[in-house]
Design goal:
Pfam families: DUF4116. By secondary structure, the protein is mainly alpha-helical. The protein is 51% helix and 6% strand. α29 runs parallel beside α31 (560-569).
């Protein structure tokens, strides 16, 4: 490239030939000699200079520059710099609406813009595409230097902060459009926008009387650009931006419609900022597609608009509550609402809540919508079956006779075991129904009849499905060793641990922390009394997690060895120990040695002994290192 630049800059007029393009393919163009008698677009080759009038800025002024057919674009830029004071790399040259790229600087102006030489009416404009302080980065930038990219970004950010000029962002964007080739660079540009917006505009009282209001008034694109930035801070400040732009929004319906379709803008906030926009039907329709709750804010005459109402309830079924009473009897509107949200049936007219088609659509979307159907339809078997197939707990809203229908109830408990709570007492005493419910939800056993909760086969089936069902078994079965072992195996199997009956105590003790945390209170107590030795289990629990000492059974807590281990690991447990354990001197000494304030909870008759023992223990700890030193010497 440097060779071509030097060649173009040092071309001698004494040559009998000029340059022409060899190829029009991608990359820098090279040139070949051509005859001096050849013409280009009918123009004779001429050595005499041509005066070109250029306009710099949008309307800042104009000047004249002399060029000839051997002038390169780089030389042309130098001449422009002399008359406009815009550095070469900061120039954006436009000839008859076509921009000359900076990578063509080494080429002849005649080849890339021949209209300058043969056309009498040529429009040459020079715009600034960046600040002069950034021009030096463009050389490196155009060579693909990544460090230069970072320098350009930081330099422009600093320059914009110093000058407080947001409009120059547009010029900077023009530069980046030529050079940004990936999303990372686009993100960097957005970061500059946010940084400037936040640094220069600390949102507070009266801020809209200063720079932001001016930017909003001068640049119609400012609000759109600010909303493009997707950061948590910008998200929070969106309503503030809308408030600052309220005059524009109120005076420009097209802008209000555009904002209503913006994902970053809440139509309800927009309506609060500029209430006048609610008079625009098109704005309401656009907003309704995103937020059905816009309906009650619409003028009274617009709330009768069928298209608007249908759009609102299609977006948010619950918007049916805002529909005028006379329209709640419109079947088309109610059907559209319940298709979106079945629970919208609550706001339909009594007539349509007794309509089979409407209610069926509602329960297909949400089984619990059965609550709002008429009494006649809540007793209709087909509708209830559809409702419980969506949500088993919908059985609670069915007619009394259907809650005693075994087929309907079985369909409900297969979907949700907790539906057993709402069925008739007769079916709560049917083993098949209870087992189906317990397999679906372990806590369903608590809703079974007392007879079945004490029935061995029913409880065994429920516990086989989940160890959590053990908590709701009858008192006698919770003491049954076979039921206890089954629940313990199910608990371990839930976490991928398998154990035979003879290995079960050992596996539980090796996973005591898991068992202690997962088992319910009844299962944990049963394991301590009916399966494991008291001391082994208690010691294993407090060694893994002393906090679990509080969950142990009273007779396990009272064990001297278990209590001593617990208080050594966590002195505060001294307050949770049974009375007989707190009266033991070693346990009292261990607690007070670590927490002197525990002396307040020692029996008055033992205070002197405990304090003396603690002092003695401290003295021994002090003397022990000295004795070791003497022995080593």
């Amino acid at each position: 490239m440097e060779t071509l630049r030097k060649r173009a800059n040092t071309w001698q007029h004494s040559d009998s030939a000029d340059l022409g393009p060899v190829s029009s393919g991608p990359g820098p163009k090279t040139h070949r000699r051509r005859s001096a008698s050849s013409t280009s677009s009918g123009a004779e080759f001429s050595e005499s200079p041509r005066t070109v009038q250029i306009t710099f800025g949008l309307s800042d002024g104009s000047a004249c520059v002399q060029v000839d057919q051997l002038t390169t674009l780089d030389k042309f830029r130098k001449k422009i710099e002399e008359v406009t004071q815009i550095s070469r790399r900061a120039q954006r040259i436009i000839v008859n609406s076509s921009a000359l790229c900076s990578d063509q600087d080494h080429m002849l102006l005649y080849d890339i813009a021949p209209e300058i030489f043969y056309s009498d009416t040529v429009d040459v404009r020079v715009l600034r595409r960046c600040s002069d302080s950034q021009a030096r980065w463009l050389d490196l930038l155009e060579q693909g230097d990544e460090i230069a990219r970072a320098g350009l970004f930081s330099g422009v950010a600093r320059d914009l902060q110093e000058r407080s000029d947001y409009r120059r962002m547009e010029r900077f964007r023009n530069v980046l459009q030529e050079h940004m080739m990936n999303d990372a660079h686009r993100y960097a540009f957005h970061r500059l926008r946010v940084h400037l917006l936040h640094e220069r505009c600390p949102f507070g009282p009266g801020v809209w009387c200063s720079e932001v209001c001016q930017w909003l008034a001068e640049d119609e694109n400012f609000l759109e650009m600010a909303l493009e930035v997707n950061t948590p801070a910008a998200e929070v400040q969106t309503p503030i931006l809308l408030y600052g732009a309220r005059e524009q929004i109120q005076s420009k319906p097209a802008l209000a419609r555009q904002l209503a379709s913006n994902a970053r803008v809440d139509p309800l906030v927009l309506a609060d900022v500029a209430p006048q926009v609610l008079q625009d039907r098109e704005f309401l329709l656009i907003s309704a597609r995103r937020c059905g709750a816009i309906l009650p804010l619409a003028p009274a005459e617009m709330q009768q608009d069928l298209e608007l109402v249908l759009t609102c309830v299609a977006q948010t079924g619950g918007a049916l509550r805002f529909v005028l009473p006379e329209l709640k009897d419109n079947k088309e509107i109610v059907l559209r609402a319940v298709q979106t949200s079945g629970l919208a049936l609550e706001h339909a007219s009594p007539k349509l809540r007794d309509d089979e088609e409407v209610v069926l659509k509602a329960v297909q979307g949400s089984g619990l919508a059965l609550e709002f159907a008429s009494n006649r339809l809540r007793a209709q078997r087909g509708i209830v079956l559809m409702a419980v197939s969506q949500d088993g707990c919908a059985i609670q809203f069915a007619a009394t006779e259907l809650r005693d229908d075994q087929e309907v109830v079985k369909s409900a408990v297969q979907v949700s075991g907790q539906a057993l709570k709402h069925v008739s007492s007769r079916l709560q005493n049917v083993q098949e129904v209870v087992i189906l419910a317990a397999k679906r939800h372990p806590q369903a056993l608590q809703h079974a009849s007392p007879e079945l909760r004490c029935d061995r086969s029913t409880v065994m089936d429920a516990v086989s499905a989940s160890f959590k069902a053990f908590e709701f078994a009858g008192h006698d079965l919770r003491a049954d060793s076979q039921v206890i072992r089954l629940a313990a195996r199910q608990l371990l199997a839930t976490h991928g641990l398998q154990a035979a009956d003879e290995e079960l105590p050992k596996v539980i003790e090796s996973n005591v922390l898991l068992v202690s945390k997962e088992a319910g209170q009844h299962l944990l107590a049963a394991l301590q009394t009916g399966l494991l030795t008291t001391r082994a289990f208690g010691l294993a629990v407090v060694k893994h997690d002393p906090q679990l000492y509080r969950r142990l059974e009273e007779h396990v807590k009272a064990d001297a060895e278990v209590s001593l281990e617990a208080v050594r690991r966590l002195p505060e447990l001294f307050l949770d120990m049974p009375f007989q354990a707190r009266n033991q001197l070693p346990i009292q000494i261990a607690a007070v040695a670590q927490r002197p304030e525990m002396i307040s909870f020692v029996l008055p008759t033992d205070v002197k002994r405990v304090l003396a023992a603690v002092e003695k223990e401290k003295a021994e700890k002090v003397l022990q290192p000295a004795a070791l030193v003497l022995e080593s010497s």
